[in-house]
Amino acid sequence: MAALRPSAALDRLSRRTSPKSLELKLKSSQSQTVFQLTYNYVRETALLESTLALLEWDEHTGLPYHAAPNRADQVTFLSGLVHQRKTSQELGGWLNELSHSELAQNPNSEVGASIRGLKRDFDKNVQLPQDLVKRIAHAVTVGQQIWSEAKPKNDFASFLPHLTEIVQLRREEAAILANGSPCKYDSLLDQYEEDALTANIMEVFSELREQLVPLVQGLTQSGSGPDGKSILGEFDIAKQKEFSHWVAAQVGFEFERGRLDETIHPFCTTLGPHDHRILTRYDAHSFSSGLYGTLHEAGHGMYEQGLSPEWFGLPAGCAASLGVHESQSRLWENMVGRSKAFWHWCLPHAQKWFPSLNHVSVDRIYADLNRVEASLVRIEADEATYNLHILLRFELERELIDGNLKCDDLPRAWADRYEAYLGVRPANDSEGVMQDVHWAAGLIGYFPTYTLGNIFAAQLMVAAERELGDISEMIGKGEFRPLLDWLRTNVHKHGRCYKPTELIASAAGEKLSSKPLLQYLENKLKPLYR
Amino acid sequence: MAALRPSAALDRLSRRTSPKSLELKLKSSQSQTVFQLTYNYVRETALLESTLALLEWDEHTGLPYHAAPNRADQVTFLSGLVHQRKTSQELGGWLNELSHSELAQNPNSEVGASIRGLKRDFDKNVQLPQDLVKRIAHAVTVGQQIWSEAKPKNDFASFLPHLTEIVQLRREEAAILANGSPCKYDSLLDQYEEDALTANIMEVFSELREQLVPLVQGLTQSGSGPDGKSILGEFDIAKQKEFSHWVAAQVGFEFERGRLDETIHPFCTTLGPHDHRILTRYDAHSFSSGLYGTLHEAGHGMYEQGLSPEWFGLPAGCAASLGVHESQSRLWENMVGRSKAFWHWCLPHAQKWFPSLNHVSVDRIYADLNRVEASLVRIEADEATYNLHILLRFELERELIDGNLKCDDLPRAWADRYEAYLGVRPANDSEGVMQDVHWAAGLIGYFPTYTLGNIFAAQLMVAAERELGDISEMIGKGEFRPLLDWLRTNVHKHGRCYKPTELIASAAGEKLSSKPLLQYLENKLKPLYR
Q1: Do the beta carbons of residue B71 and residue A272 sit within 8 Å?
Q2: What DSSP character marks residue B333?
């Protein structure tokens, strides 16, 4: 692509994206020159990647019906350009040179971490045989298509051969990436959560499960607790949009650097160092879907807004991992947004938009928004049962990759595990093993990051409170800035300069532990269920 | 870029974008192989160009405030990729070979016209020295910036050196492209209106001016005529959006292949063969701005929707010229949308959205929407005076390029010409010579396409009526399909297979003539001014 560079437009681009501070910090040297070339090259790749993000954002906000095939072609073509740049010999050569240079010596500096992260990503990108990459891409495209047809028809049999192929291909991939290590699942997990080890996660998740299963049983079988009715009614969607926008701005999402839109499956995406877009969905019969979709995605968005714009597209300006990302969304959605203090502050405001809430008390709405119910569907689960949905998926997918469980036996294993952990058994595979798209999309090793996010969030809240004092009191007054600033300083601004476990351990002052999450759930839920 | 091709994703892409009919039509031959390579290559370029269109659409529909610099970088980078592909030796070699092959023999067939058009575009793209291209790009970037600051301050002096430089650079460009021909302006005009000749346009525009100046003077000095008040009031913007959407769908804009959105300066853009986006702006005090913005852009959009999806991105699937494009927008906006028949049909519907129109008659609203007023600002002009705004710009910019007028003397020449043609004189340069961005953006040779559009539209309406019978009667019943189908058959489906004047002459059954436009304006306006 070197032939592209000399144009005036690209000269302008390079000028714009070269960080001045960087030029000061590095002495004139061969390594500095190579780093500057690498930096510019990666920033250009990021321009393509953020353009891809726009293509996808637009696809989910109102792409005309017949435009989908051309959109797929645009995405495919740009993805090809990105892949070519990410695996180019030119980049590989620079990274080889840099990783042996003095610039790589401090692995936690912005420059050192970026070299380490880029080298790690490059090696992963070139390590897999092109043929396997293609076979996986094809299998998951077909897999998702078949899944979306089989799920409503409750037809696991037609999905089974595709799932079997996907699991087999990802086992092959894991074997190559594992480089002889005995735990194949580690190398899949590592793609979503850098350096996470299956053994560590098993230990922490086991502790969690041992206490969570009896806690949930105790609550759901108590016969008491909230009925969830105060949050139902008629809620004008135009008003919900205004309210969600206002709440997101109050907690700290910057609308001069972002947008909030409507979609079918809420998500957050980044289109540039100052362009963060969150999307939620609204339900005319309950305001909680729109509001908590917004708060969840605003948590993701505020993390992205706290990363360094100067290092955008490089590891020093990227999120640390999916687990850390999820910790930010769950913290704002649940630990802030479902707290009693939040509703002390928020209810009088919400009543201005929704007069039907005028006769609802803070205690009542707080209780209803925290109702615990053993259900079959993950995405509708409350804070306590949610983790059980994740834990059993983690166990099952690990067994699939290890070869201890066959895809044929998956529906039964799924149902047995639901019965054991949640006391409910799916009536069919549509609300059972086929409920999530993840496995059809090849996402194996992804699920545990959801519960890691909850664990991290609880650890971070304990540490923040130790330093800031009574956070509930602040939230009760609508003062969210101290908490956000603490997260900016202790999590966001570090990007990928530390490995996720190091980052959280440093911020939380303790290593990975499920205790804060369990403590939080017990303290919150037991009083609601006498 | 050949190294990119072998990926599975791109194989899939090529399969998808190869027209089956094409493979049948062409016998196996070397030329066929080269044509197929060219076709695939140009379609891939079109994927990048339509992605650029999305970046620009999104920029005008709510880009976060601080996201603008990164958006400019994305656009610059993708534009660089497009330019590289459009001037590549590979493409040049193929086009050379094809233009001497048997496939180029019929210049009006889809294949022949595509070869001819691509060769023409390629030659233009490589003919200009890279240095001149860069100097122009720089001058117009700075020029627009200075213009946008100078206009509100009414400061022509600070804009003058930049305008002088832009005119000088475009004269250099014209001299190179003219290849020794005496009329430099021809080669600028040709960039917007293929094969249009200054001499021809001068002749037709002179005829128009000679009759239009007295017509407008007669009307505006008559002391009678509509006062324009029935269309003013309070019009809820949410309701205007619904109404505009409904009207666009009624006239034939396909929403399964398009969208209607809100922006500051209305436009139409194409993001794919089935993705056409129109944008309008709304005024809470008058529904005409939103409605006529919609109808104008829907006219552009329906033209794009009538092009061949199979030839998307190639000349056979592109609009013939800016003038032909403008003929479609002005036809639907004015000749349909401002007709009395349209309001016979539309008023009862409009009253459902806007009860304040309940006491307005068809005659009254029709008259008010067609009020003629000699004004200083082009974009606010009525159908009759609009062309005078254009004619004087055409004259002035031609004199600038010929060297008969200096930029220093432009403000005075502008004011004199407004006085002569419209009887009004600007009080300052802000509402005078600096009102439009075109010259600051280097767009010299572009203005005449606006009036060509009006002339073409009037010629097309006469021909359509000759074939279809009483079009007013159809419009009065809300039957727009016969007119749209006639335009599809006689204009849209031919893409760029014919030169614009050939296309219009063939559809209209006569060569370029201002008579139908003058006749139309006289028939319509004289009865409104007794």
Answers
A1: yes
A2: I
State the pairing for strand pair B258-262/A258-262: unpaired
Confirm or reject contact between B259 and chain A (CB < 8 A). Answer: yes
Angle at A106 between CA A100 and CA A112, to 5 degrees: 65
With tokens 């998808």, the residue in question is B16
Asked whether the beta carbons of residue A47 and residue B77 sit closer than 8 angstroms, the reply is yes
> How remote is the C-alpha of A116 from its chain's centroid?
22
Average pLDDT, integer, range A228-246: 95
Closest to B185 measured CA to CA, from B427, B433, B445: B445
Among residues B78, B326, B327, the alpha carbon closest in space to that of A50 is found at: B78
Look at residues A284, A316, A298 and name the one whose alpha carbon lies nearest to residue A252. Answer: A298
- Position B27 scores a pLDDT of 52
Closest-CA distance, A274 to chain B, in angstroms, reads 5
| Helix (H), strand (E) counts: chain A | 22, 3
Q: What's the confidence (pLDDT) of residue B87?
A: 95
pLDDT band at B11 (very low <50, low <70, confident <90, very high): very low
Determine contact: B124 vs chain A, CB below 8 A. Answer: no
Q: Which residues, including other chains, have CB under 8 Å from residue B222's CB and lie 6 or more apart?
A: B529, B530
| C-alpha–C-alpha distance, residues A198 and A184, integer Å | 9
Query: Which residue, A165, A162, A194, A188, is CA-closest to A176?
Result: A188
Q: Give me the count of residues in chain B.
A: 530
Q: How far apart are CA A513 and CA A499, in angstroms?
A: 17
- What pLDDT band is residue B28 in, cutting at 50, 70 and 90? low
Alpha-carbon dihedral sign for residues B411, B415, B417, B421: positive
At residue A187, the pLDDT reads 93
What ipTM was reported for this prediction? 0.90
Cβ contact, residue pair A50, B4, below 8 Å: no
- C-alpha span between A111 and A22 (Å, rounded): 9
Angle between helices A8-17 and B68-86 (to 10 degrees): 150
Strand order in the sheet with A275-280: A258-262, A275-280, A267-272
Taking the C-alpha atoms of residue B281 and residue B293, their distance in angstroms, rounded to an integer, is: 7
Helix (H) or strand (E) run with residue B272 in it: strand B267-272
Structural domains for chain A: 1-127 (no CATH), 133-232+322-530 (1.10.1370.30)
Contacts of B73 in chain A (CB under 8 A): 13, 16-17, 47
pTM: 0.91
Question: Is residue A4 exposed (0-12), middle (13-18) or buried (19+ Cβ within 10 Å)?
Answer: middle
